[in-house]
Amino acid sequence: MRRGHARTRSPTRAAAWLALAAASLGSLACSRGPTDGELDQWLEEARAADREAIAAHGDDDERARWTLTIVSPGGAETELRWPELERMAHTTIDTDLPPEGDVPRRARFRAVTLHDLLERVGGSAGHRDITLVANDGFRATIEIADVDAYPIGLAVEADGHPIDRASGGPLFTVFPISAEPSLIERYTSSWWVFYVTHVLLDTPPARVRVIDERPGRDPTPHVLDEALLESLPRNQVTMGVGYRTGWPSEPVVLEGVLVRELVQAAGLVLGAGEQVRVMTIAPLTRGELRPTVLTADDVMLRPSMLARRWGAEGTAHDPGALLPIPARLGGPLALAVPSDVQSRLGDRVWLTHVTDVVVQGPAAPGASTERAR
């Protein structure tokens, strides 16, 4: 798990991403497998994201600032700060970790169980699943039945030591696979989410804030709720998605609202040279390290949209066959942009759990929206 004091796990999600591709695509009988090139690309993106996240934060200060936000199906948010998480972490999970090569790995974790977290916000009754979201946007979904039956937890310590960022901390998902071997089949290493920041109970309603951050403008957010989003014109595109987790590898139909329609619904006008930044619940997308910024042309001249529904290829003319995008697939809102925009933004483009669309002034001289290297 950790170098030194049981620190055998590296900071990268390499194994998780590779296992994820096999696990999620394997459940889709009609899907082709990922190519070697796709696997190499996903691996490098995962490594790059983790390197940047680790370099951007110090463990001690970050742990003190860390919060966990639980989002209810109605959209209400409960924020738990680190001291409360520490007090709730009274469950010991002594378990092996998912295999990584031939290196045996075992640790004793102190954790707050997911069941106790749900009790904090009213319990699990009547709910189907929860989705854990990491600081970098990685996600995994766990069935409520398993949350209630097993002490699956978010660990704050491993072998008596805080879990540092390089080892997946400060909140690290743990499954009691030694005591309950059946969990290994359902929750591979892909589900051991690092640095968890959000717990989504079922799928929250679609809702996005449009914010005007241009100099001299009113920055009060314009909140577009599910009913308003439903009233806006719908746009469809058939494309391969980069969300990966749980999605087919062949193209799918995505339906949603164009970003320009969102800006206009908020009563804003986007001028030449201005920009629109898209943010999600994942903190990494909200900082300055890896911003996803669309140009005025991306918004006004191209079909960049927030997708709300999806379906198999061939269902474009059958609206009844399109389903809301659930939290397990990155919903209720996910950014979808055309291929030329994808190529420019690279690994910053596939955003899930979108929350904010921010209108900004022109980029500073010398700034670039090219892919970060």
Q: Topology of this protein?
A:
Layout: H1 14-26, H2 36-56, H3 59-65, E1 67-71, E2 77-81, H4 82-88, E3 91-96, E4 106-113, H5 114-120, E5 129-134, E6 139-143, H6 144-149, E7 153-158, E8 161-162, E9 172-174, H7 182-186, E10 196-201, E11 208-212, E12 222-224, H8 226-231, E13 235-239, E14 252-258, H9 259-265, E15 275-280, E16 292-295, H10 296-300, E17 305-312, E18 323-324, E19 334-336, H11 339-345, E20 354-360
Parallel strand pairs: 1-10, 11-20
Antiparallel strand pairs: 1-2, 3-4, 4-7, 5-6, 5-10, 7-8, 7-9, 11-12, 13-14, 14-17, 15-16, 15-20, 17-18, 17-19
Total beta-strand segments: 20
Tell me the CATH superfamily of the largest domain.
Oxidoreductase, molybdopterin-binding domain
CATH topology of the largest domain: Sulfite Oxidase, Chain A, domain 2
The tally of domains stands at 2
Indicate the CATH class of the largest domain.
Alpha Beta
* Radius of gyration from CA coordinates: 20 Å
How far apart are the termini? Answer: 29 Å
Task: Give the percentage of residues in beta strands.
Answer: 25-35%
Q: Please tell me what the overall shape is.
A: globular
The largest pleated sheet is described as: 5 strands, mixed
Q: Runs with pLDDT <50, length 5+?
A: 1-33, 368-373
Outline of the structure:
The chain folds into two domains: 188 residues, Sulfite Oxidase, Chain A, domain 2, CATH 3.90.420.10; 153 residues, Sulfite Oxidase, Chain A, domain 2 (Alpha-Beta Complex), CATH 3.90.420. Helix content is 24%, strand content 27%.
